[in-house]
Amino acid sequence: MTTRGHCFCGRTRWEFEGAPTWSCYCHCDDCRRNCAAPIVAWLGVPVRRFRWLGAAPQTLESSKGVRRHFCATCGAPMGFEADHYPGGMHLYAGSLEKPETFTPEFHVNYESKLPWLQIDDDLPKYTDTMLHAPVSLRDYHTDDSA
Ligand SMILES: [Zn+2]
Ligand SMILES: [Zn+2]
Hints:
glutathione-dependent formaldehyde- activating enzyme (gfa), 4-stranded mixed sheet, 3-stranded antiparallel sheet, mainly beta, 36% strand
C-alpha cells in the first residue's frame, strides 16, 4: 500500500509504503506555532519506507538535532525529523492526499491543550511527548514490515 501527500501548492509531495508506525494529535506549543493551528495531527513512518517527490522541501533546523521540512514555494509544513527519533519521518495528517482516511490513536502533550478546544474522544491522552508515550518505534529500524 502506498500513501501519498502534498503541500498547499502541490509542488512538494511525498509517499510511503505500508502502514504508519503511529498516528496522534499533538497539543504542544511548538507544533501549534509551526502550523499556526490549535492542534496538529501527526503520523510517524520509517524513513526507509518514505521518499520525497516533486520539489525538494526546504529544511529549518529549529533547534539542535531537530529538522523541520516545509515547501519552498508555499511554506506549508511537510515533515519533521529529529535525532531523538532516529529512523523516523513525522508527517502531517493534513498533508495526506486523503486526510479523511487518517485514524488518530492517542494525544500527546495534552497538558498544553488550549482551554477552548473541545475534545470528546476516548483516545489515550498523554501529558508528555511521544518519547514517553507507550508507542513502539521499533518499526523505524526493522525490515520485516512493508
Ligand atoms: Zn507548496
Ligand atoms: Zn508537538
